[in-house]
């Protein structure tokens, strides 16, 4: 801590000015903090968690109630429109009655029901509604699955029956098995579709869209590796080896007989 004290007067201070002297003193500080006891802090944290859980439960309960209410309205509308052919008349009447009773309960005794009760009631309604929805979806998606299946089978048939050079390296028995498997699966699909078309739409289909799609995938996994098998590399023709040369020792050629030199007398 710094303090200022006036210095004693000196002769130089004739003008009456005082000289400032700065003195430093130690300043003792005592810090005091207030904190709640550990037990009280723990209690507050527990209470905060309980309040957050209570708020979450209130929100979840409201969401479950809204989901049940929405399902009642949406399903009742679909029973009269999109789903009308996919449920028997007697079942439709009973289901409509259950939906109406649920609606009345929601605005009466169920106004302040618990989350678990709303979840349970929605689950009970879906036991009837979900199979109807599945039959509707199957009927909607089946034509595309059937078309893709037939396009694949017909495409492979055309390829293997073309007789071109692409599959000339594949054994005849392998090609015959491919055609046999294709025909068997095509017969299976034709039979299943005929059975489905002969039944009312509120009967579960004999074959699902998933089964049709899976059958096509399995055929492809079986057939594609065979058809894509690369042709074997042509064998390299070896150049004919030259005939072994027989070395013959040439017969010595007789030296031409030289004429004997004749001595001639020169005069």
Automatic annotation (TrEMBL):
Pfam families: HSP70. GO terms for molecular function: ATP binding; ATP-dependent protein folding chaperone. Residues 234-248 have a biased composition (Basic and acidic residues). GO terms for cellular component: cytosol; nucleus. Keywords: ATP-binding, Nucleotide-binding, Stress response. InterPro entries: HSP70_C_sf, Hsp_70_fam. It comes from the Eukaryota. Gene3D superfamilies: 1.20.1270.10. The keyword Ribosomal protein does not apply. Residues 226-267 are annotated as: Disordered. PANTHER family: HSC70CB, ISOFORM G (PTHR45639:SF4), HSC70CB, ISOFORM G-RELATED (PTHR45639). This is Heat shock protein 70kD, C-terminal domain-containing protein.
């Amino acid at each position: 801590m710094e303090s200022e004290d006036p210095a004693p007067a000196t002769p130089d201070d004739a003008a009456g000015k005082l000289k400032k002297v700065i003195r430093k003193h130690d300043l003792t500080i005592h810090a005091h903090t207030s904190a709640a006891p550990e037990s009280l802090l723990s209690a507050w944290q527990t209470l905060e968690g309980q309040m957050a859980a209570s708020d979450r439960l209130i929100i979840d309960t409201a969401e479950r109630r809204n989901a049940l209410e929405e399902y009642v309205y949406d399903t009742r509308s679909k029973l009269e429109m999109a789903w009308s052919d996919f449920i028997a008349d007697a079942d439709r009447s009973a289901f409509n009655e259950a939906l109406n009773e649920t609606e009345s309960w929601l605005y009466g005794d169920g106004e302040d029901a618990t989350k678990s009760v709303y979840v349970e009631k929605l689950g009970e309604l879906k036991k009837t509604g979900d199979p109807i929805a599945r039959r509707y979806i199957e009927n909607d998606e089946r034509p595309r699955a059937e078309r893709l299946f037939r396009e694949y089978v017909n495409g492979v048939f055309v390829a293997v029956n073309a007789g071109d050079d692409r599959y000339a390296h594949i054994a005849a028995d392998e090609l015959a098995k491919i055609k046999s498997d294709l025909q068997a699966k095509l017969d299976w699909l034709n039979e299943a579709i005929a059975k489905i078309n002969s039944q009312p739409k509120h009967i579960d289909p004999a074959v699902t869209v998933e089964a049709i799609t899976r059958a096509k995938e399995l055929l492809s996994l079986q057939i594609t590796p065979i058809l894509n098998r690369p042709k074997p590399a042509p064998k390299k023709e070896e150049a004919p080896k030259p005939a072994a040369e027989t070395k013959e020792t040439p017969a010595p050629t007789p030296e031409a007989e030289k004429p004997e030199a004749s001595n001639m007398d020169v005069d």
